[in-house]
Amino acid sequence: MTQYLLNINPIAILVHAAIPLTIILVYALVAIWAERKVAGFIQDRLGPMRVGGWHGWAQSIADLLKLIQKEDIIPADSSRFLFKFAPFMMFAASYAAFAVIPFSSSYIGSNINIGVFYLLAVTSVLTLSIIMAGWASNNKWSLLGGMRSAAQLVSYEVPTIATVLTVIVVTGSLNLMTITEMQSGNDILGFLPNWLIFQNPFLLVAFVIFFISILAESHRVPFDLPESESELVAGYQTEYSGMRWAMFMLAEYADMLLLSLLGATLFFGGWNSPFGEFMSGPFWSFFWFMLKGLLLVFVMMWIRWTLPRYRVDQLMYICWSILIPLSFINLVLVALWEVIF
Amino acid sequence: MELTTILFYLFSIVTIGAAAVMVFSKNIVHSAFALMFALIGVAALYVLLYADFLAATQLLVYVGGILILILFGVMLTSLGYTFNFRTITVNLVPATVLSTGAAVLLIFAFVTTEWKITEVAERPDTVYDLGMMLMGDYILPFIVAGVLLLIAIIGAILMSTRLSAENKGGT
Predict the structure, then answer these.
(1) What is this structure's pTM?
(2) For residues A268 and A292, is the Cβ–Cβ distance under 8 A?
(3) Are the beta carbons of A105 and A287 closer than 8 angstroms?
(4) Domain housing A280
């Protein structure tokens, strides 16, 4: 791998690495606008309508320009280095994880064999950056938010990993590209695509557990306790302003996309077209992959504006008493299904 | 200089520098975050040795697990909420003697050992080989480690339930 890196042009490496970054940035602009429109429509109002003409499409761009102009305030009693470093580390962790996501049948950042495992390992740094931000702010709300986030992420990592493990039991590979390639074709009941979610009834259960866990991992309502606006004043983000705060927002949306794309890869066939050979190929596979990922992101937004927030004890109860036992039983059942059929 | 050599020195400096900050920092939370940089640096060095699985495990277990628990533990104590959670030095003389002894031993071992230097072989499939070895030649240590962890988990659960039962009786 290292030898391979030395032989190619450094500019080529940069371009190769910048593709996911471009996708994340464009997606974040659209997703923040979409979030507000979804919120508006669910609450029977219009959402942003003014900037740019058609349905306020330029609202995110205007917000971004405003954030760039804002003063960068650092609290006098904060731990300066950690305070400044935390937002960048958070974004770096979620961006680094995009390296193993197969965006299309012909593009993947790094085709390493430990794909999913690497992704889970790198995203665990996210928790640490939230604790860092919460502690360095020297603010009780921030610290509470950081601690809640640590407890929540450490707990919900267990059901996430257990459900990812069920997929690995079926596919026998950690490489996300291989997992996707194994799901191509339309053989189930004659017309359904060979996606893992249709292959095995227990994998459907696994997907439900996985989706609940990734809601908690990306701090979305009903599990947004680390940053609950109404009680913790945005938690670990309280003291941040301007572009540093924007980095947190970007990282959060990138994390949503990352986990949704992971879900799409593991359960919904990744870049495979739902119609077999029809509309497949490098460009269309990118289209299908992003469509699946963005649909899951849309469901996350839909849930955010529909459900109320859980209490901390309910959050822990759901994880340790329901999701973890269920995911382990499910893992055994999937393994049995694979042995029998 | 080759790119890998530059990367090796870069990550070594990060690791050693972070370790020094960790040891000499007066603030325990700063030490914990410095430990994070040291652990990430070691993970990067593993990658340079083609041990990708080990690097990811290092991140997942040490950075994503143990370090978060350390920070969580520090912040749960009443002093964690204040900013001045400081470390103090105790047992200055015995600690100096012991650490000097350990340093001398390590340096002696490093100088006298005949290190076998080989080119690192590129492995296309580390996980597969690792899994085969764990399930084949090294099955006994693997199972013993698993049982040990199970005992530790059961012990932790027992201790926490006993403590909470006592608290309920007390209030």
Answers:
(1) 0.85
(2) yes
(3) no
(4) 76-340
